[in-house]
Amino acid sequence: MSATGHALALHGLTKRYGSFTAVDDVSLRIERGQFLTLLGPSGSGKTTILMCIAGFVAPTAGAVLLDGRDITALPPEKRDFGMVFQGYALFPHMTVAENVAFPLRVRRMGAAERQEKVRAALDLVQLDRFADRLPRQLSGGQQQRVALARALVFDPALLLLDEPLSALDKKLRAELQEELKALHRRVGRTFVNVTHDQEEALSLSDRVAILNHGKLVQEGAPAALYEKPRTRFVADFLGKSNFLHGTVREAHPGGFAVMAGGTRVIQAIAPDAPRPAAGTPALLSLRPEKIALLGEAETAENAVDGRILSWSYLGAGFAINVATQDLGALRVTLPSWGAPFAPAEGMPVRLGWSATASVPVAEDAD
Known about the structure:
By secondary structure, the protein is an alpha+beta fold. The protein contains 9 helices and 20 strands. Helix 3 packs parallel to helix 5 (about 140-150) and helix 4 crosses helix 5.
């Protein structure tokens, strides 16, 4: 199979259904060979964008460009894109090999070349020994691989994925995430994936575009989005976060201080970042895993006392809710291995975190 990807660009993409705007002026560029995930809650516009890219939905405004060429008006069959649907859409009366061969038969490819391409595609997804089976004789994960092989067999310009793992159980989904990422590396194709699963987006993607109410809220590398969310929505949707509300007390060269009730919170910021003025409201996002439980002799740049409200054992760690006087209930995630104590409801604790652990974020627009 070819190992060259193609670049895709969306310019001001908009889709309206009467008075309802499903996609609102979205501009985005996907580089050759990248794995981009469109991430957002139900109704955020991610699937509509994918359907516009595929050609199944005509945008109200804007353009879809492939390698700089406007393909907005091109019908789906002329775009040469592979697509994997949520339900796989395999033909139940066809064998695995016949399902994979179907796009080649439509293209009137000769039998010998068709057979060779099917063999290579099934080998790529490690299903060559299942070529003569029917879809009902396969597991859900195997059916998903057949759908991937069928979408890749004709060397598509792009591979579009519409929540292809959502029907699988959690363990199998995690395994296939690794396989899909490895497959992307092997074929070198440009992949565009749609999901509402944050873990899937983080683990699979080179870049993630987060959508809400039809708008592109933030896009970038997974680590950058997780560590530096710009808004409360991004911080809350991509993972979990505590939000500290307060008022800026004073600014200093390394950052600023926020008063949240009677608690002073030190916040570090980049040297070139603007310093907020004293008296202005501030909102900080603090990830649960960046909070530590302090021992009697330990100190931290930020510290607060509290009591455990509730806790859960998650195998690899504890998820603990701690009630504090000024900051409300804080979620804390601690590794269970080597934990210095067994959590109990009502237990007094002291929490600490560094000035770099939290991130200033903007409140979401109404």
